[in-house]
Amino acid sequence: MQNEIWKDIPGYEGYYQVSNLGNVKSLPRRVYRQDYYFVSKEKYLKFRKATQDRLYVDLYKNKEVKRFYVHSLVLLAFIGERPKGYSVCHINGNNQDNNLSNLKYDTPRQNQIDVYRYGKTHGNSKLSVEQVLEIRKLHETGEYTTRELAKKFSVSQNCTQRITRRDTFDWLNNDGTIRESQTKIS
């Protein structure tokens, strides 16, 4: 079992901390309420679910509230600012597993590859991974043109051309395996 390590959330030092296990807590502090002060106790914040089952919390400071995804807070506190053009990715595909060992910064493209890796599909995708593999296989036999494949799979000819040229789904090998991430963060 991992030891829980706590770090201050940048911008909220003295107010909130996040742990390497993905927990968030408010720290004890003196709070002004109407016409008196009291000391608030340390407490774990309750998570709420956003789209795609991602967990978030609301953080308060100076009478302002801001909403943060828990996975973003974990990486911000333990790794640092998100590099420009990168996203927070869940390595195992579970958006509720905000353990530091399951999070990384990566490109949006690699994040989408990971989505397919764990059996999820993009909401706008008209073809499954199996159909893409079948299109490639049929085209390589020379028996079907991209126009015929488009009609067979009810997509545009442009779509089948892009698949056979590997302009799309280039991360998908012909045996159905997914090419590993080559992304490096400097």
UniProtKB/TrEMBL annotation:
GO-annotated molecular function: endonuclease activity; hydrolase activity, acting on ester bonds
Keyword Aminoacyl-tRNA synthetase listed: no
Record Gene3D superfamilies: 3.90.75.20
Domain of life from the UniProt record: Bacteria
InterPro entries: His-Me_finger_sf, HNH_nuc, NUMOD4
Name assigned to this protein: HNH endonuclease
Annotated NUMOD4 domain residues: 4-38
Annotated organism of origin: Candidatus Jeotgalibaca merdavium
Keywords per UniProt: Endonuclease, Hydrolase, Nuclease
A Pfam family this chain is assigned to: HNH_3
Keyword Metal-binding tagged: no
